[in-house]
Amino acid sequence: MLWPFNHFRKPRLAPPGTIEAIYGMIVTQAREPIFYRDLGVPDTVNGRFDLLLLHLWLLLRRLRTVQGATELSQALFDRFCEDMDDNLREMGVGDQTVPKRMRAFGEAFYGRVQAYDQAVEGGGEALAAAICKNILNGSGMDQAERLAAYARATDADLGRTGEAALLRAAFNFPPALPEDVTP
Predict the structure, then answer these.
(1) How confident is the model over 35-45, as pLDDT tens digits?
(2) Among residues 52, 36, 53, which one has the least CA distance to residue 136?
C-alpha cells in the first residue's frame, strides 16, 4: 500500500543491500590470510576485531568527505554493532554480559578511531606506532610499519574512489600487500 505522506520521507542514500555488501567487503578484507600470516596480526578474536576496526575506520574516514553519507556511515556502524552482538551470543556470552561487552567494543572503536585519526594527522611513524599498540599488542614495529603503509595506501585508494561508487558499494579494497607499498 502506498501511503500518501511517503513523499515527505527523506530518500535513502544507499540502495537495499548496500550496507550488507559494504560490511561484507570490510569483513572479507579483514580476514585476508596475509594479514595474519605475513604481517603479524594475531589470528585471535582480538586480532580479527582490531583488523575489522582498522578497515571500518578507513572506510568511515573516507565517507566523512562525502556529502550526505552520514546515514550510510551510521548504518555501517550499526551493522558492525549488530555483528559484534551476534558474535558474542554465538560464543556463548550471556544476555547479562552482552551489554557490558558491547560498551567495551564501542569504547575500543572510538579509542582506535581517535588514535588513528591523530596518528594520520601527526604523520611520520605515528600511524605505525598506533597500529603496533592496538593491533600487534605492542611488538613487531617492522610489521606495524608495513600495516601502516597498507593503511595509507588503502586510504589513498579510497580517496580516489568516486562518491557514487562508495555509496553503491561499487568499489574494492586494494590488495592486502601491494608490491609497491613500502613503509
Answers:
(1) 999 999 999 98
(2) 36
